[in-house]
Amino acid sequence: MHLSTHNWMRAEPLETTLRRIKQYGYESIEISGEPTQYDIKDTRRLLKEHGIRCWGAVTLTLGERNLAAKNEGQRARSVQYVKDVLTMVSELEGEIITLVPVTVGKVVPDASPEEEWKWVVDATKECFAHAQKAGVRVAIEPLNRFETYLFNRASQALALADAVSPECGVCLDAFHLNIEESDMYEAIRLAGKRLFDFHVADNDRFAAGLGHLDWKKIIGTLKEIGYDGAVTNEFVAPVDRTPANRYADMVEKNPVDISPEQLKFIQDHGSSLLTEKFYADQMRITAETILPLIK
Q1: For a 10 Å CB count at each end of the chain, is N or C smaller?
Q2: Are 210 and 202 in contact (CB under 8 A)?
Q3: For the residues of 121-175, what is the DSSP string, one character each?
Q4: Number of other CB atoms surrounding residue 272 within 10 Å
Q5: Is the whole-model pTM more than 0.70?
Q6: In whole angstroms, what is the distance from residue 229 CA to residue 207 CA?
């Protein structure tokens, strides 16, 4: 196992992110799934300069992106988006794509379970075929019920993976497991060799180590099943707008450029644009919590 991180949680130059995470002992990055934001040649150069490899990318299934959409054209555009992310990962010599199949924040279905299941299976199969050509593995990620109605548990993600291919896997996230699974350790064991990626944030979605999750037991269970991939940092710090706020300086007052869609995505997660100091502290705390356990 090695320590990785997402970078979608704060809008900042990639070079700033890479310099910071190298300092704290991260080995790779799971890059934001926005291919138009990254020049491949420049990104490869930055990764090499900072000694950080691309582990993969996470799909940012925001706006109209939805592999289970009722509208055929919308599904086709969503498939093309996933293919573009897969191509980006391949060109960055990454290994994996974490696929959230349906729109994050959408909690009301548009059709019958049978119809939606057919749509999402067919669309994911098309994405998977492209992934095989690109040499990138696909991991289906379930989210909690407040972010999506369709995939909430490991067993559901495995059902879609099974419907696509024996070579399709899953990604689990400790934050979502804590909400949805009756036994998060059994969920990890259920995934077994099909677990291709693992995301970490504590029960309050701050950095690992700031909540009540048992990280020693979580990492121990990953070792038990022989998991040897990335443990990927994905804190989404909740913003407190009351006098009870413990972190008065966490919100950035002079943000860098960020698209309205991405800003909404972050805000829909109960977070906001974070200051560099607060963000760096969360990165450091996760590293200090996880690294001693995986070494």
Answers
A1: C
A2: yes
A3: HHHHHHHHHHHHHHT-EEEE----TTTBSS--SHHHHHHHHHHH-TT-EEEEEHH
A4: 18
A5: yes
A6: 20
